[in-house]
Amino acid sequence: MLATQDVLPSSTAHLSNDERRERFRDKAHLVDVLLLSMAQDAAEFAAGDAWDEDGSVSAIDWMRFNCHMTAGAAANAVAVGEALPRMPESHQALFDGEIGFAHLAVMARTAEALGGRFDEKVLIEKAKENSPGKFFYICHHARHAADPKTYAAEQAEQVEQRRLKLSKWMDGSLLISGQLDSVGGAAFLTALAPLARRSGAHDYRDQEQRNADALVELASGGGSQAQIQVTSSLETLLALSGAPAAEMEHSLPVSSKTVERLACDSSIARVLLDSESVVIDVGRSKRVVSEPGRRALAARDGHCRWPECERPASRSAAHHVVHWIHGGSTDLDNLILLCHRHHWMVHEGNWQLVRGDDGRMLTIPPLVSFGPPSRGPD
Ligand SMILES: [Zn+2]
Ligand SMILES: [Zn+2]
Predict the structure, then answer these.
(1) How many Å lie between the centroid of ligand 1 and the Cα of residue 370?
(2) Which of 35, 130, 208, 325 is the most buried (most CB within 10 A)?
(3) Averaged over 9-37, what is the pLDDT?
């Protein structure tokens, strides 16, 4: 076994700052090259049966126990090893020290998600110019541009995975654990963040305590009206092919389906950019339903119009039957009230809502089910 104290002096105390920086960069590069080599081994290991002989359920599971790795790190190693033949330039860039293994893991996941539409040449330049975190974000835009349907389906699947477990303890306190999708999580953070700020220099609470206090305040009806900031191109809103995803504070890039829903009602501040990224519409648009229009709608519908749903008007959005982006008006006969869940089902969930001859609303489920989500850490 390699003894690190034989390879490297144990202290950098004798080095100048320049030498220290160089040594640190060199060492990080060395680690990246080793990780790349291990990724090649990992892919071959996963394709073989050595892990099976040991009774492990998967190669990743074997690596977790025998190599002391997290499931995420082991899955990344296998993904990079498997995708290497499809990303020769990334391979070379890592050896040249232009990108790190973290970039390579993002590149491999993108190759895996995009299949035949993966174009390394476009992405490798972005990888060289950006940090791994920023590159991860850029790759989501590339995935949306190449295949908006799958991207929307994956985000829809995240929504179906939402969970919130609430259990009462003996002393009456409430234990909360759960999972939200990227867009839902962003809406949650947007509502919580202003209430969770420090209230002054004397505020001794840590972030987690302030989060909890903010949640209680929110549930108690306090706080200012949160406005979700979405930045979207017109192409994205029109769901044109090749359009990037939209951007939303606290969230990963957002699918055009979701932007369509958010833009449907007035509960967000929109910033639409034209192709030269010039802001052409900031804040509440005049297309959005006016307050008198909203009151008339609430009086007519009373509650969500989805069959057998009675969520009150105050918890419902004004849905445009023909979206304003496609020329639909904000007249009362083009609007119906839909609660959050049912509004989502009409937009991202691909359900159809039609008015029957007797004026009642009928629902038509989507024709195709969502595809399987891309492979997770396990
Ligand atoms: Zn809508
Ligand atoms: Zn409803």
Answers:
(1) 20
(2) 35
(3) 90
